Prior knowledge:
Number of domains of chain A: 2
CATH superfamily of the largest domain in chain A: Formiminotransferase, N-terminal subdomain
Largest interface: A-B, 72 and 72 residues
Number of strands of chain A: 11
Helix content of chain A: 25-40%
Oligomer: homodimer
CATH class of the largest domain in chain A: Alpha Beta
CATH architecture of the largest domain in chain A: 2-Layer Sandwich
CATH topology of the largest domain in chain A: Formiminotransferase-cyclodeaminase, Chain B, domain 1
Radius of gyration of chain A: 21 Å
Amino acid sequence: MEAGDGPGPRAPLTPVVECVPNFSEGRRREVIDAILDAVRRSGPASVLDFSSDSDHNRSVLTLAGSPEAIHAACLALVAACIERIDLRAHTGAHPRMGAVDVLPLVPIRGLAMRDCVLLARDLGDAIARRHDLPVYLYENAALTPSRRNLAEIRKGGFEGFPEKIKDPRWKPDFGPDRVHPSAGCVAIGAREFLIAYNINLASADLDLAKSIARLIREKDGGLPCVKAMGVLLKDRNLAQVSINMTDFRRTPLHVVFDRVREEAARHSVGIAGSEIVGLVPAEALFQAARHSLMLEEFDPSRVLERRLEESEARERGDGR
Amino acid sequence: MEAGDGPGPRAPLTPVVECVPNFSEGRRREVIDAILDAVRRSGPASVLDFSSDSDHNRSVLTLAGSPEAIHAACLALVAACIERIDLRAHTGAHPRMGAVDVLPLVPIRGLAMRDCVLLARDLGDAIARRHDLPVYLYENAALTPSRRNLAEIRKGGFEGFPEKIKDPRWKPDFGPDRVHPSAGCVAIGAREFLIAYNINLASADLDLAKSIARLIREKDGGLPCVKAMGVLLKDRNLAQVSINMTDFRRTPLHVVFDRVREEAARHSVGIAGSEIVGLVPAEALFQAARHSLMLEEFDPSRVLERRLEESEARERGDGR
């Protein structure tokens, strides 16, 4: 009998945007620290995660906060990067076109994709004005369909952009029609949460991993919002299907997992395990639990922590 | 590349205790409202959930808050119940021995079972003194093994307690050696989160549901921390295994589900679906997702919302 109706109307939660700036420095520790410090001093945005890769010579930051806090944090990040990074002296394995290469904005709670689109455009305008930097809007923030795909925008990279930008089809959405001499240009987007998800086959058959990757990825006619490639984990001698899921609400984790498992089984290969790289929204795991437990009419508002969070927000008077 | 190390040391979250008071009024709306009002006016404890059952003539409240907030809320609840409920005039289907029948305390985050045990004893002492009410401590708060089981304590009910309490084996842990004339006595416990979980067979075979329930429940040699019975859902013409899971960390949801599914399959019966009644901790769903996706080394601190909550707590300066 310990169950029943909810305690009344839900309180709106404080709106939270995630922003995952990628910037072109992954080697000089003092430069990275100075950039992180600038972000921390910008206001209340939280640093949820951070990683640097020296081969790529690139760092990725995960920020979260209100739209205002993210706006302030991005301006501080861009200023710190432009001051300290000169792409003319930059080498690294990852494709890049700017000192701040990409600023994706992700609606997490209490706001819609539309709000992130508006935030991307506001930010783009502010950054272009302040630093005389060309800005491209991508994915949901794109002003034309041809600019939805980040890879298309970035093609040519920093070295190719002085030519590319002269092409009227690649006129920036904000800022001047020439690249910034040391900082290149920046892409600002609004997109869904990206889940990096890898499935390890119980086999070292790289060709099988590659053929499964082809089968499941959207661009080859597979599952919507799934990017995939086959790689070999040398230290474990396992073949891996390495996946980026660009909208877990359209194609959930368990759909990808089941599809890979079935296809591997057709070749008499089992699954060794899977892993989520980086952060994952609770909802993506709830989906998988709901599916595997065959839960009827499961509502995330019945999750204790969610209820508690709503209740605490109500008491703090958030969003009122 | 959008992944990596965490942002630094975790901040401790504000300690949260859940309390699930069961009180002996499920019919008179004005009495129930007055009791809820008294709880709300007691301080910052949150009402997460509430349900009344008029057949049982009983209500169940789910509260959450700091140990101090829960202490204040329980004192307010007990005072309001004693003032308004007279068990001499009470009828209802559910076994009960008190106006406030049971106060279970559950550690949710930022504190241990031991802290709930201490809170149970503090509360027991305070309630006994203030209202001259006999108090029994149960489950993890019990002072002797014979009092761990709530059903043993409650046996005889309000009507049988005036005799039972004279038996030295049933001397109360706090308060007088005689029942309160109108309010009986109260059991205060510390326990794990209880998940009410039902699995519906794709069959109306009640005997099969009963035999599966026997097979999985702890008291008949089944799974630890599992209580179960078979029931018939008349409106859907389905047999159901109705389960209480008293420690989902010892026996997770997916273990119960898989066991029931296998056993039903042995009788060529499928699963129609399952349902969680009331609230469920996120961790219980993460366990199921981890199992079904074969996630290696999954750490709940990689869940976005958890990371965000820790970060917000750090900024508010909680727990410092």
